[in-house]
Amino acid sequence: MVAAQPGRVQPLRRHIEHPRGGPTVLRIVLGTQLRRLREVAGVTREAAGDAIRGSHAKISRLELGRVGCKERDVADLLTLYRVTDEKEREEFLALARGTSTPGWWHRYNDVLPGWFETLIGLEEAASVIRTYEVQFVPGLLQTEEYALAVCRLGNPQASGKEIQRRVELRMQRQSLLTAPNAPRLWAVLDEACLRRSLGGVDVMAAQLRHLAEMTRLPNVTVQIAPFDLGGHAAAGGPITILRFLEPDLPDIVYLEQLTSALYLDKRDDVDHYLAVTDQLSAQAASPRDSRAILEEMIGRMEAG
């Protein structure tokens, strides 16, 4: 029998009772715990796959939190890993049931691709969200009118109804910044995304005012990387790094592409991107100076 390790069952109970991040995070936690059990038991992925009538690839996806898991499969894996304590087994089975419970964003499935759904769940559970944007104001800081312009630009063939649904989803995402236990958002914006006028002068002026107002929140930090900074390590494209308080959730780097996204959680990858964002934050204007830059840009726009 594999004895329950101190500090393992209690975190499971916390996730079951307070599932921040919804099914996305529960899948990651469950997969991480099952991987640890498998390694302690000395079971290969191939043998684990056989036990649930699957493949080693299925076990890999399960342990990475990429897919949900049936209660029957979890029960079979626990038996294979020689976990017989009923209380401990029930914790795992309850967690498995939670992975199939839809998050609030499920009602936007008609406009929400699966690769982006993962990000929303991770945002909900994050303690710190660090982001660098080169083309657009970050979605968590956009006004409704600016978001409308961005969605139209990125989905030129979409109907008006679909565009509005995408905007509603984006606005709903932003509520996490003012929710209890809100994450800290640390955003570095290339000056280019502030100079690019989307939606017209009035829309952009309102967006800049909103951005300046958001910096008043204690959990929101905005820095601007001005043109005169020249080249920098993050010039290749946008970066988002999500950090978590829970030990079962590794730091994750999110790299968005046109029709997909990459999620990196290997320590070397994460450390590389953390070093890049640290360097960029050191080079960019300070939060105070960035606010002054915003206010200057707003003044010029309002003056015509």
TrEMBL record:
Question: Which terms does the record give in the GO molecular function aspect?
Answer: DNA binding
Task: Supply the SUPFAM superfamilies for this chain.
Answer: lambda repressor-like DNA-binding domains
Which CDD domains would you find in this protein's record? HTH_XRE (cd00093)
The record's annotation in InterPro entries points to:
Cro/C1-type_HTH, DUF5753, Lambda_DNA-bd_dom_sf
Top-level taxon of the source organism? Bacteria
Q: Which Pfam families match?
A: DUF5753 (PF19054), HTH_31 (PF13560)
Record protein name field: Helix-turn-helix domain-containing protein
Point out the signal peptide segment: none
DUF5753 domain location, by residue?
Answer: 116-296
